[in-house]
Each structure stands twice: as C-alpha cells, then as structure tokens.
Amino acid sequence: MEAGERIERALELAVQRTEADNAPPKLRGAIRHGVFPGGARVRPRLTLAVAQACGDDMPGMAEAAAAAIELLHCASLVHDDLPIFDDADTRRGRPSVHAIYSVPVALLAGDALIVLAFETLARAGAEAPSRLVPLISTIGRAVGAPYGITAGQAWESEINPPAEQYRCAKTGALFVAATTCGAIAAGADPTPWRKLGHRLGEAYQVADDLLDAVSSADLHGKPVGRDLALGRPNAVAELGLTGAVERLEMLIREAVDAVPPSKGEDELRELVRLQALRLAPKRLLQSAA
Amino acid sequence: MEAGERIERALELAVQRTEADNAPPKLRGAIRHGVFPGGARVRPRLTLAVAQACGDDMPGMAEAAAAAIELLHCASLVHDDLPIFDDADTRRGRPSVHAIYSVPVALLAGDALIVLAFETLARAGAEAPSRLVPLISTIGRAVGAPYGITAGQAWESEINPPAEQYRCAKTGALFVAATTCGAIAAGADPTPWRKLGHRLGEAYQVADDLLDAVSSADLHGKPVGRDLALGRPNAVAELGLTGAVERLEMLIREAVDAVPPSKGEDELRELVRLQALRLAPKRLLQSAA
Asked: Do A24 and B137 touch (CB under 8 A)?
C-alpha cells in the first residue's frame, strides 16, 4: 500500500474510534473536520519513509507513530486557529474548526486529538511494548513543555522570545519526532535521523515565514501577515526576502544531505527534496534559482 | 511514605520536567499553578489505595498512574475554568490559571498537562511496558472522546444532552480509571474495581450538584449556581434537595460495599467512606442523617 493510503487509513481508524456510541455530535464533527481532508501530511510521510529505510518490520507501529504525529499536528492547528491565538477563520482553504463548530467545541476537539494520539500509540504498542516507551517520550517531548509545540506557542505570549528556541519548539521538534519515530517504530536507532528532522523543521519554518510575508490568503489557505503584525520571530524580517529564500534553499540541501546511509537512501533523498520543495512558495524559489 | 506524600512527590517530579532549560516563564507558572496546591487529590489517593490492596509490587508505576490521572484532572479544571466554559475566575479559593496567566497561556498549560500525563506514564512504564498499554488505554478512554472528560464537556454544547452519558463522561470515567488503574499498575485484574469507581464518580457528581446548588462561593472555592444557570443535567434539579442528599448517601454506601475482597479491605472501605464524605456538603448530610 502506498504511504499516503497507509496514513489516511490509520487516521481514519483512529478518528472512527472517537465516533462510537453516540458521541456528542458537534465534537464528533469537529474532530473529523480537524483531521480530514488533510494537508500534505508531510510529517507522517517522513515517519513512514524513515521506517521503511529502517526495515519497517512492524508496519502497524510505524503507521500508529505516523498517525499520532499527524493527530498532534492537527490538534495544534485547531488550537492555533482559535481567536485567542491566530484568530484564523480559514485553514486549508476551508472554514477552520471553530468557525463551524464554535470555540468551546474546537478547544475540546484539540484536547481529544491530543489524547487520541497517545491512545493510538498504545493500541499499536501492544505488539511491541518496549518500543512504546521511547515513542511516547519522543512524541511527548515534541508537543509538550518545555521543548514542544505548547512551549513554542507559549513563547508567543512572552516579550522578545528567544528566536531559535521558539522556532525549535513550535515547528522543529515535531519534525525531529517525525523522523526519529520512524526509526524507533522499526526498532532502529533514532540518532542518525535527528539531523534530517532538524533541517526539515527549520526549512518548514522559513518557508512558512516566507508564505506569511508574501502570499495572498488565497494561496496560503489561511490569513497571512500575522507573524509580522504580531511581532513574532520571522526569517523574512531577520534576513530579508532574498536572504530568507537563500536560507530555505540551503536548509533543503542540508536536509537532503542529512539522509543517513540506509536502504533506498536515494529514493528517500528525492522524497525529502520533493516534500521540502512543496513547503516553499514556488514563485520565489524559481526566481531565486 | 504516606499516600499524600507519594502523590505530591510524583506530581512535583512531573511538573519539574516541564520547567527545565529556560521554559517560557508564563507557561511554567501556569502549569505549576494548575497543579499546586492541590485539592483533596481524591482520584490519585484512590489509585494508590487500590494498588496497595492489589499488592503494589511496582510502586513507581502506581505513583505514575496516580500522577497522570491527577494531571489530567488538573488539565480539565484549567480548561473548564476558561471564559468560554465556566468562566470561573477562582478555583480552590485562589485566582484560576487564566485569571493570572491569561487565557492563551492557560489553554496551553492545559494542553501541556495532558501531554505530561502520558509522558509520566511512559517514563514509569519502562519498568513494565506491558502494563503501560492498558494504563494508557484506560486513562485515554477516561479523558478523550467519546467516553471521557472532553466528550462530557462537549455535551454541554449540545441541546438536552443525555444525562447519564454526560455525567459518566464528565466525571465518572476518571473515577473508574482511578480505581482500575491502581489494579493495572500493580499487575492485577482491574474488573473487580470498576464498580467502586462508578459509584464514587456518581457520588462525586451528585455532591458537586449539591454544592453548586446550595453552597456559597466562599465554601466552594469557585463560583456557584452555574449548572442551573446553564441548564445542565443536575441531580438537585431532578431530585430536589432532599432527594439528591438521599441519593448521595446511597451512592456512598454502595461505593463502600463495592470494595472487593482484598488485602486490607476494611481500611480501604473506611478510606472510601471518608473520601466520599469529603465530597459532600457536610451541613446537608448532617441534617439529613
């Protein structure tokens, strides 16, 4: 089965479990709306690709790790879009969860998605409980405090947040979890896969800053110019437009080079390059190339 | 070490992990404020008591389960107090988390506490990974959708929520997790401990309804009369004051009777009775007794 299909199937199975036995209808709708249809599913694709490069001896474990990471990413988007944060009425070109289901229900849907991610890991973990421990620790670190998404988001409530730490927590940590958990799920050493996750996380953040600075809301699928308006650390503000584009291109090259020697490493490099390019505003990369 | 000390130490160790390496100061403060000083710690006390009754062969596992359940309870209080839900400026007689640290930071602190609960389980689970799977599944079910706290809370956004299902999800499920996880953490069968959790959960809900209806905000430590004002299912509205007090007394007796034959069962029955009575507005029980 193709990676995209494996991811959607794993997410569908997870979400269906929240819909059993007369679940509260709005919460049910909100959870589904927060997960489907997805974006590029960049993080879970990375997880499965790394698992494959490491032998993928327990496909169910790799799929659970991929799904858990994507569910947590979706949870962060649902909470991030709320009026108290980005106040985004649209996401992926559609109304955001709270715009349809109300702010309270969107908050609860985000909470439920966080819980669902760990339940999904535990369900698959019955097959190999010893892999469950490092998977939960790695993923927990990437979304909790002080190193993960919630901390990254919380830096936005501080004056002059440390730029590197902010970016790492808000975006980088989950990319590192995406690559390293692919290895852990396949019973391999995660260490060689950290750098790939780091570089992609940084690339993603710079790409997002570029999009935020130059896209129209139409292209981006969500309101733009927020970071600048809110005074958050932003690569375009720091490096200028050309500087940010150059930095993005360098990070993509470094990410490609960071793929360690492994089964099918050439295909994996190509996947990394393609996924990384998907992040970038094409118009800018072409003009800079 | 006494149960209360074991709980506070386990919570302290967990919270300290979120405070490492220059964590965002407001988030750090909000997480700590959401956990300390605690209330009666009824749920983790139950977990440890049941673990003890089952032999408590892995105290670290029982403490992690107890701490995880309390962290999730605290997370639910932090989110529940937000202006979009109960809009409670006070909790346990002090300002609520958002009243001090802002609504965005309180929301993130709740998220971080949810993640921390599962990280805490995983850390202890390294000792016995096979117990980790049912612990996470049981606790996840008690806080996620469709059976747990988020679902219970989400019923409040529906018109005429099913009273039984609402109560069970909002309050009962975590009490059931508290008793059954004590058994699981000690490697025992959780089934005989379900009924105790159920009855205590129901007792707690009726007690809370009574407090909501009759207490002064001073006694309760949070604003009162919310349920009635918000049209939520409420035992006092359904049964009247005397009827609700009688129901509470019956539930406490049933809870005491639900303690299965086990090591030190008499002490455990006494603990259950005392903990249950702590829930109740004393003035009412005395006048009804």
From this structure: no
